[in-house]
Specification:
The protein is mainly alpha-helical. It has one domain. It contains four helices and no strands. Helix 3 (56-68) packs antiparallel against helix 4.
């Protein structure tokens, strides 16, 4: 999946169609995994079928509910920390600093 951020909303027809593709392996490429909120990551994890995080009920309990509890900064910090720990082993991040003389 190139331009993975286009499936960030798991209720869209495009996202559902992409998630329904039968594949042994999945790869998702995007320069912007988070555009509006941490929920954007859920759409990517759902496409990747990364269990249990691709389950909407699991995501809701582990991230959304924590993030929305009392709209506190602490809830957002906890949710962000969890998302970072989940995607860290899945993510290959290239920055301008990682380029060599040939690009």
């Amino acid at each position: 999946m190139d331009e993975g951020h286009l499936i960030k909303n798991p209720v869209t027809a495009v996202s559902k169609a992409c998630c329904a593709i039968n594949a042994d392996r999945r790869w998702c490429v995007t320069g912007t995994p988070i555009v509006n909120s941490l929920h954007d990551v859920f759409g990517l994890l759902k496409f990747l079928k990364h269990e249990p995080w691709s389950s909407s009920s699991f995501w809701k309990n582990a991230i959304s509910n924590i993030m929305n509890d009392d709209d506190s900064e602490d809830g957002m910090k906890v949710a962000l920390g969890r998302v970072k720990r989940v995607i860290s082993p899945l993510l290959l991040r290239r920055t301008k600093d990682t380029l060599d003389k040939n690009g």
